[in-house]
Design brief:
Oligomer: single chain
Distance between the termini: 25 Å
Strand order of the largest sheet: 5-4-3-8-7-6
Number of helices: 9
Order of helices and strands: HHHEEHEEEHHHEEEHH
InterPro entries: GAF-like_dom_sf (IPR029016), HTH_MetabolicPath_Reg (IPR050707), Tscrpt_reg_IclR_C (IPR014757), Tscrpt_reg_IclR_N (IPR005471), WH-like_DNA-bd_sf (IPR036388), WH_DNA-bd_sf (IPR036390)
Protein name: IclR family transcriptional regulator
Number of strands: 8
Shape: globular
Pfam family, one: HTH_IclR
Keywords: DNA-binding, Transcription, Transcription regulation
Length: 252
């Protein structure tokens, strides 16, 4: 049974009402929010862009409508059972390791960093180690680039307001312009690579996981020693893309 708040905070109430509007409308326009909340269009726009800044909403560049953002998708996953997601991912991570003989990870994007949330280690004597719980600069990792490629240009620039980027090895992109060019390649190939950009002698390939609504929820990555993994990038790219697509179909 719904219980009314004794002292409702208007701004929080409005934010909640906007998010709940997505139950009936998969895409919200400024005019929709203005009419629903009884506020000026300028106020509605500020509310939407504030939620967008927190990744709770995402604006479609063409339609200008606002739909569920990656943080909202992650929140839904957490509420409905993160264990279920990790169990689903675990099976595919194990299959990735079996198919590629390299270490596989599940990662999410937070701001300008990637977070390793699950992984399965290769049985090779020389291999990439597990990094569950660790963070790293998104622009210097395969999973980070795969997820950054999902962002609209204005959101990418909000996260990277400066022209120069910091983090990673000397092989990592060091300017926002170079990153934008790299992300365009990711969109063309369908997967991202890390060629000794996060660590020396480490190569990785990653693909975005999208749920049934097409929202990016995370990325699957396969990594290994540069000499071995670097020689089979296309094979790794094919394997990780198929696994990410399969995992996405299992997410509501």
């Amino acid at each position: 049974m719904a219980v009314s708040a004794a002292y409702p905070v208007e701004s929080i109430d409005n934010a909640a009402r906007i998010l709940l509007m997505l139950v009936e409308k998969p895409s919200l326009r400024v005019s929709d929010v203005s009419a629903e909340l009884g506020v000026a269009r300028s106020t509605a726009h500020r509310m939407l862009t504030t939620l967008q800044a927190r990744d709770l909403l995402r604006q479609d560049v063409q339609t200008k409508g606002y739909g569920p953002g990656p943080a909202l998708a992650r929140l839904g996953i957490a509420v409905m059972g993160a264990v279920s997601l990790r169990d689903e991912a675990r099976l595919l991570l194990e299959k990735l390791v079996e198919d590629t003989s390299e270490t596989a990870h599940l990662l999410v994007l937070e701001g300008t960093e990637t977070v390793f949330i699950e992984g399965v280690e290769s049985q090779q004597v020389i291999r990439a180690g597990l990094r569950t719980g660790q963070r790293g600069p998104a622009h210097a990792s395969a999973a980070g680039k795969a997820l950054l490629a999902e962002l609209p240009p204005e959101e990418l620039r909000r996260r990277y307001p400066g022209a120069r980027l910091r983090g990673g090895t000397e092989r990592a992109v060091s300017t926002r312009r170079a990153l934008e060019a790299e992300l365009e390649k990711v969109r063309e190939t369908g997967y991202a690579t890390n060629l000794e950009e996060s660590e020396q002698d480490l190569c990785a390939v990653a693909a975005t996981i999208r749920n049934r609504q097409g929202v990016a929820c995370g990325a699957l990555s396969v990594s290994g020693p540069a000499r071995r993994a670097g020689a089979k990038l296309a094979q790794l790219g094919d394997a990780v893309t198929k696994a990410a697509t399969e995992l996405g179909t299992r997410l509501s």
